[in-house]
Design goal:
Length: 152
């Protein structure tokens, strides 16, 4: 019983001291001392992010002005909700940056045959940049064309 009381007092003292130090460190600039006192599960300010996708300019006989992002082309293209399309766009963009022509052409061939049904089309590989807080508040994103591709 005495051993239990000693452990209980030590544990209570440790836990109380740990919480007290954590509250004291809330006054530091980042409000934490990593890795000991981190009060936030997520970062205070999310990092700006970039992702790649495709923008459809023409598909078959249809022309879109302004162009539409592939994932928003429901009822127009096959599988607009596919999670593989942004992956293929990222693969193509990275292959372009690193001059890996085989990987680029493989991803391009897969996209055109599986997601555009090899129809006569003009589409763009685009980079979408945004700050998550601004996108949440205003919906603002910056779309930058990387390459325009034509399927004859």
């Amino acid at each position: 019983m005495q051993h239990y009381r000693l452990r209980h007092k030590l544990f209570t003292t440790f836990l109380s001291g740990y919480c007290l130090l954590g509250l004291i460190f809330l006054g530091t600039p980042k409000m934490e001392i990593f890795p000991f006192f981190s009060w936030f599960l997520f970062a205070l300010t999310p990092n700006p992010s970039a992702e790649y996708n495709f923008q459809i300019i023409t598909y078959g006989e249809q022309t879109f002005s302004p162009p539409i992002i592939y994932n928003e082309a429901k009822g127009i293209v096959p599988s607009p909700n596919s999670i593989k399309v942004p992956r293929l766009a990222t693969t193509m963009a990275k292959a372009l940056e690193e001059n890996q022509t085989d990987e680029y052409h493989t991803a391009k061939r897969v996209f055109e045959s599986n997601y555009l049904d090899n129809q006569k089309s003009i589409y763009q590989l685009i980079e979408i940049n945004y700050d998550p807080l601004e996108r949440w508040k205003t919906g603002e994103v910056k779309v930058t064309p990387v390459q325009t591709i034509t399927i004859p």
